[in-house]
Amino acid sequence: MPFRPLPWLVISIGAVLFASRNRGQCLATLTGVKANKVIKLLVLTCIAALSSACDVLAADRAADYAKLTEAARQARETAPHMIAPGPFQPTWASLEKGYQCPDWFRNAKFGIWAHWSAQCQPEDGDWYARYMYIQGSDQYNYHLEHYGHPSKFGFKDMDNAWHAENWDPDKLMQLYVKAGAHYFMALANHHDNFDCYDSKYQPWNSVNVGPHKDIVGIWAQTARKYGLRFGVSNHSSHAWHWLQPAYGHDVEGPLKDVPYDGWLTQADGKGLWWDGLDPQDLYCGSRIPMPKDFPNTTGAADFSVTKTAYGWHVKNDGHWYESIPPDDNGYSEKWFLRAQDLLDKYHPDMLYFDDGQLPLGQKGIDVVTHFYNSSEQWNGGKNEAVVEAKGLRPDQRKGIVEDYERGMSDEIKPDPWQTDTCIGDWHYKKGIKYKGVPQVVHMLCDIVSKNGNLMLNIPVRGDGTIDDDEIAFLQELAKWMDVNKEGIFDTRPWKIFGEGPPEAKGGMFNENKMVYSASDIRFTTKGPTTLYAYFLGWPTDGKLTIHALGKGGPTPAPLDQAIQSVSLLGSSEKIAWTQDADGFHATLPTAAPSEAACALKLTLSDKAN
Q1: Among candidates 489, 453, 459, 454, which has minimal Cα distance to 471?
Q2: Contact, 348 vs 383, CB < 8 A?
């Protein structure tokens, strides 16, 4: 066979390229080619050498990639303020333009919250970690009696006393699911600055101190086990001012001027249970110094300077600051890292901020942006995240969900929203009288009719259990849900939310101003042909009139479709009904199928009259 150099050169180059990926197959192929032995030997030698060089290059390339990956990881460790890439940019404008509230939240309607931390351990109610340091307050007096002076037993010690020893999350979640919860929220941290999870950036956390459990991680696993969406609440942006009383002192009495434990440092813990931990990481450092003396400015013999000191706290460290601290000293960046770590570890569906708009300026916007972009990565390109905060401007309601603490809306909101409330105090308080199921049911019907969700806190004791009254509440709520949930979940508002006596003005902290009766009607819909009418009381005469569902009046009624059938949820009895210009009139059965509220289900024609 004559020597033709060009074809062999082409074969050699191709073989070398192929050899870099599959040397064995390449050599086997060339070995079978008929050619001069010397030429074959030269070509094979060339291929072997070049492919070996390719291996070296590939190994070097892999090593380079490993170095780059490690460099990226180290960069994250040393300068970790990086936002997950994606369509959202860290601006309000980007959030407002690109966000759409996911259907799962709009369909869920009702969630349960465990607002649980070491502040539940003393069983003395809300804001214990603050008021235990304010002389003269009820919780200061309680703390003095049960634990000792705050200079000796501070809140860091309460964190350690919290053991959650009887916590059975499976048992609790089963109760929550039966009561109708479609999502569950765990408290990740409160204003007390203690992280209830395996926190990378806050050593004062529930894995290192107290329960020695990853509280949020266990809640997340349990909620998902029972098919619930999972949320976390973050309240720690306010710790820098809220916990300042820990740097105070008694203003009168035998321990006047003795500093509280906020002033302790890591060096003071040598040989103690908190050896190696720095209380300043928990208490945030002294930022708003408390005056040494509070004079008697009234001249009254019975005047107590504790009243003046209390007023000073309200005015100074009790102000609800949303901004970055004046003396930031890394506080806001650490808050960002803790929030980001929380999201990256547990991949929640919801993030609740106890803040007006978003916390700590740009840091809060960065966290939301990171959450939205990360959610798309976790969910195949679909953003399933919900972020909640309070006091939003109308334009901001397009970018996150507005929350009303212990409050209501007086209209159908164009954007989904939420009420968060509690049957008692946010943190467990022994002996308190809880809301009854009727009040919560009335709130739920009203909220859902106006395009909202209800998130209800069931306070948990420090040991991880709920009391008998709370269990009875959940069981009673479950009975109501068994009958009436059809018109609550997976619904949307109708043309109007309902009818009845004038309501209190919408807003926060107005829930106890609402009083409902059988004349209060609330509507929900499923598609164009199913309308539910909840009446928030049982008519004493068994006759129900709904004026909005009338026909033939001088002005057009909201209902412009023919009613084809009417039934009462939870009842098999036939409902007699009529329509006229005054409204829709139904004769109800003798006995109500459920307490608190009942619902008529109306099937409507496809087309308007």
Answers
A1: 459
A2: no
Residue 501 confidence (pLDDT): 81
Tokens representing 83 are: 């936002």
Percentages (nearest 5) of helix, strand, coil residues in the chain: 40, 15, 45
Q: What is the pTM of this model?
A: 0.85
What's the topology of domain 109-241+326-487? TIM Barrel (3.20.20)
Task: Determine which of 18-22, 94-98, 396-400, 500-504 has the lowest per-residue pLDDT on average.
Answer: 18-22
Judge whether 109-241+326-487 and 498-608 match in fold. Answer: no
Of 60-64, 264-268, 272-276, 473-477, the poorest mean pLDDT is in 60-64
DSSP one-letter code for 528: T
d(CA 132, CA 125): 11
Where are any strands of DSSP class E within 488-560? Answer: 498-499, 521-526, 530-535, 543-546
Say if strands 452-457 and 350-356 run parallel, antiparallel, or are unpaired.
unpaired
CATH architecture under which domain 498-608 falls: Sandwich (2.60)
Tell me how many degrees the CA angle 310-316-321 measures, rounded to the nearest 5.
130
State yes or no: pLDDT of 464 exceeds 80: yes
Question: Average pLDDT over the chain, rounded to whole?
Answer: 88
Mean of pLDDT values over 173-202: 98
Pairwise CA distance, residues 354 & 358, whole Å? 9
Rounded to an integer, what distance in angstroms lies between the CA atom of residue 78 and that of residue 373? Answer: 22
The domain limits of the chain are: 5-78, 109-241+326-487, 498-608
